[in-house]
Amino acid sequence: xxxxxxxxxxxxxxxxxxxxxxxxxxxxxxxxxxxxxxxxxxxxxxxxxxxxxxxxxxxxxxxxxxxxxxxxxxxxxxxxxxxxxxxxxxxxxxxxxxxxxxxxxxxxxxxxxxxxxxxxxxxxxxxxxxxxxxxxxxxxxxxxxxxxxxxxxxxxxxxxxxxxxxxxxxxxxxxxxxxxxxxxxxxxxxxxxxxxxxxxxxxxxxxxxxxxxxxxxxxxxxxxxxxxxxxxxxxxxxxxxxxxxxxxxxxxxxxxxxxxx
Length: 261
Description:
By secondary structure, the chain is α/β, with parallel strands linked by helices. The chain is built from ten helices and twelve strands. A hairpin with a 2-residue loop joins strand 4 and strand 5 (64-65).
């Protein structure tokens, strides 16, 4: 479904955020991207979503290269890609611009001229308990409610590939649980970026661990990665700290929000 071949990208030419990254995502995969803040997780999702483009290497969706010129010139492919590949931003304010919640959820289906746009709005508003807020302006909502609206606006497109950037950042625990159950029970392909190791264990079976400079440190089962303390240290998902016990100085590894034991 998605292939990256030796992708390099940096916001500054001589400082790559993603460097020589190659990987494949197959239909039905549930993939978690793990890494510390600043390692390039959000940038990688934007590359996968065709919002930014590699300085070298290629990103392909279903065998078609995601190039700025191709998305502009090939309207049919661009339309299909924008419906099938949806990105949930870490900060939902970047996604919300319509006057009401109802308009926000229905914006994508209406733009794509889907005949059942109203039914899609009703379905996902009900699923995410947004029905009482449909006439409210999104900017007046709480952070968690905004995140739900942004998520509903993507699910209303019935995407084949769902890209999630820190999906638990603003959601309450009940909604996070609903999201995990919904995604795992569906055929949608998921790539979710997080530094929350507890969430990683729930979201997918395969994980990519990114290190500094967007280097791929690991690609394999989630459980094996979470039990690999040297790997988590290298990725800055665990740290070593010292303390004194009975007069002796000891060093221990502390894993962030995950009990590796």
